[in-house]
Amino acid sequence: MRSLIILSVLMILFVSEISAQAIEFSGYGGYMVSGKSTYYDGRIDVYDGGVFGATLGYDMGNGIQVQFLYNRNNASGRVDYYRSVITESYNFDLILEHYHLGVEKTLGGNEMVKPYAAMSLGVAAYTPKNIEPSGHELDAVTRFSMGAGLGVKIFPSERIGIKLQAKMFMPMMFSGVGIFCGTGGCGGGSSFYVPIVHGEFSGGVILRIDK
């Protein structure tokens, strides 16, 4: 599934390059703050940890940039199983990856300082490792997710810049889909909830190439 997503994104970006005014590549690192997710018979606590990633963006004019984002968080966590009380607990390491396609919008500024807002959609891949005590299993999980953030880019030169940003990533758990009919006709709907929010605080270097 991840390979199909990456291939689809690369095809979209290849087509977008035809009308792009500039290309931006950035690499960054920072810190990701996570939290707890409670489910029917237990709780998962994902600990905070370092994050690194990269973005590839295509300027489309009017301060709008189409962007592909990848980041990776190497963290650890804890699972508690319980009904009325905690009955079993164990620890694990976790690889959390986001693959997102989104839009970044410049919010005023000038050629040197460019504040921006960003929104994106994609998938979050959770891969547990090194579960202790041994004998327990946790499945790798991939979920649709959405992201949003604010930041600022600073360009002391025409091609090289730096950026500082704060973002949040929210995996989406779809809880139901329904179709209903009444006197006014038929319709449908779906619902989802966000089990956990990941907050990213990071900074990095930008390479900009004007076409």
Indicate the topology.
Layout: H1 2-16, E1 22-33, E2 36-39, E3 42-46, E4 49-61, E5 64-82, E6 86-106, E7 113-132, E8 141-154, E9 160-171, E10 173-182, E11 185-193, E12 198-210
Antiparallel strand pairs: 1-4, 1-12, 2-3, 3-5, 4-5, 5-6, 6-7, 7-8, 8-9, 9-12, 10-11
| Helical residue percent band | under 10%
Gyration radius (Cα, Å) is 20 Å
What structural class should be given to the helix and strand makeup? mainly beta
Largest sheet data: 8 strands, antiparallel, barrel
Give the strand tally: 12
For this structure, what is the CATH class? Mainly Beta
Q: What assembly state would you assign to the polypeptide chains in this entry?
A: single chain
Which strand order spans the largest sheet, edge to edge or round the barrel?
A: 1-4-5-6-7-8-9-12
Uncertain segments: 174-182, 184-194
Alpha-carbon distance between the termini? 33 Å
Series of H and E elements: HEEEEEEEEEEEE
In CATH, the architecture is Beta Barrel
Shape: elongated
Beta-strand content estimate: over 45%
Structurally, how many domains make up the residues? 1
Instruction: Write down the CATH topology.
Output: Porin
Describe the protein in words.
With 211 residues, the protein is mainly beta. It has one domain: Porin (Beta Barrel). It is 7% helix and 72% strand. The protein contains one helix and twelve strands, in the order αββββββββββββ. It has one helix at 2-16, and strands at residues 22-33, 36-39, 42-46, 49-61, 64-82, 86-106, 113-132, 141-154, 160-171, 173-182, 185-193, 198-210. The strands form two sheets. An eight-stranded antiparallel β-barrel has the order 1-4-5-6-7-8-9-12. Residues 174-182 and 184-194 have low confidence and may be disordered.
